[in-house]
Amino acid sequence: MLRGKIMERAGVLFYERGFAATSIRDIADAVGISSSTLYHHFTNKQEVLHAIAVNFMRDFVAETTVVLRDTSRTPTERIRETVRLHLTISDDRRPELVVGNPIRYGLDQAQRRDAIRLQTEYHDAVRDVISQGNAAKEFDIVDIPLTTMALLDMLNGVREWFRRSGPLSLDQIIDRYTAFSLRILGASPAPSTG
Amino acid sequence: MLRGKIMERAGVLFYERGFAATSIRDIADAVGISSSTLYHHFTNKQEVLHAIAVNFMRDFVAETTVVLRDTSRTPTERIRETVRLHLTISDDRRPELVVGNPIRYGLDQAQRRDAIRLQTEYHDAVRDVISQGNAAKEFDIVDIPLTTMALLDMLNGVREWFRRSGPLSLDQIIDRYTAFSLRILGASPAPSTG
Questions:
Q1: Distance between CA atoms of A62 and A67, rounded to whole angstroms?
Q2: pLDDT, tens only, A16-49
């Protein structure tokens, strides 16, 4: 429990002040414990960041792959639900989103690899659904790996600019990006972006 | 000329070693001048980075807006050519690509704003062509601002993973991404991704 609380408070501090500007002492103060208690759970600041990144990516992969591997639903339905989950989780847990964020440079190479391995697991599950949809003629795709990259890069872009205080709600963004995604996939019938 | 040479060598060093790990002395050595000669041209390291970022974005905006504002060509043709330019310039001048790169955190806020102002100029020119194509019924779009974001985020993603040593040539990537772009725009007739 304390471990989880440390990760949560540290995530917010890293996100708001930056990794370099946050000390172990700052994190301990935010949790209301001593630095020595914190060192009982984590060797250093980098280890806290690593735990946050891996924990987030594990949850992200777990939630999305349940949908992506649910063969009782059509590939189109699975993509729709994945777009929703991708954008919702990225917004809900923004401070924990280390992969694809400059804060990831606070991790060493081995630590970054752990997070990237989980990212690859998600990527591959999306690619498999795209491939299945293409085989089933729901989609119309020539290059499956590149279509997967284009789709995920487009979705990952949203977290860089989306603000809850902006003109569109997250639900509206999700509707539009679902339509963009189905268009990239050449989903038939071609969906409106409205 | 010396100023340009300093920027060129510094760009490569920042790109290869990181901004923090590169000193004024390293840059001067790479150019073959003394640090004091370098200080004659730039007050500090940050100013070199700022000059690189603004110089790159000015060139990028100049090259792309010539195409984007060329009303003798259809919006579809202008988008095709812009996708090609966007991906080609981003690859050719990768070390100078500070905007959207973690190295941008080496700039202060005012310096970053200069680069972002130029990025916005490009963004707005793309948005205008999308809007013109929609009005001319070449495209089929409900939300012009969001379509512009989706398209540019997708294109910006390429520089994160494209390697010249990879399985696809840049020309092949450009072909595929042109097709993805036209699909997002609902270009009619719906183009194949092949």
A1: 9
A2: 888 888 999 999 999 999 999 999 999 999 999 9
Count helices and strands (H / E) in chain A: 8, 0
Of the partner residues B150, B156, B160, the one whose CB lies closest to the CB of residue A180: B150
Residue B152 backbone dihedrals phi, psi, to 5 degrees: -70, -35
Cα separation of B95 and B101, whole Å? 10
Nearest Cα residue in chain A from B168: A146
On whether any CB of chain A is under 8 Å from the CB of B32, the answer is: no
3-state secondary structure B144-193: HHHHHHHHHHHHHHHHHHCCCCCCCCHHHHHHHHHHHHHHHCCCCCCCCC
Residue at token pair 């990768």 = B94
Whole-number Å distance between alpha carbons of B183 and B194:
12
B193 contacts A147? CB cut-off 8 A: yes
Residues in chain A within 8 Å Cβ distance of B173: 146
| ipTM summary value | 0.88
B146:A168 CB<8 A: yes
Q: How far apart are CA B146 and CA B7, in angstroms?
A: 35
Residue of A nearest to B150 (CA): A154
Residue B184: its chain A contacts at CB < 8 A?
180, 183-184
Least Cα distance to A94 among A15, A28, A32 occurs for: A15
- Count CA within 13 A, CB hemisphere, residue B186: 24
Model confidence at A108: pLDDT above 60: yes
Residue of A nearest to B193 (CA): A142
d(CA B163, CA A127): 20
Structural domains for chain B? 1-42 (1.10.10.60), 45-184 (1.10.357.10)
- pLDDT tens digits, one per residue of B25-51: 999 999 999 999 999 999 999 999 999
User: Are A176 and B143 within 8 A, CB to CB?
Assistant: yes
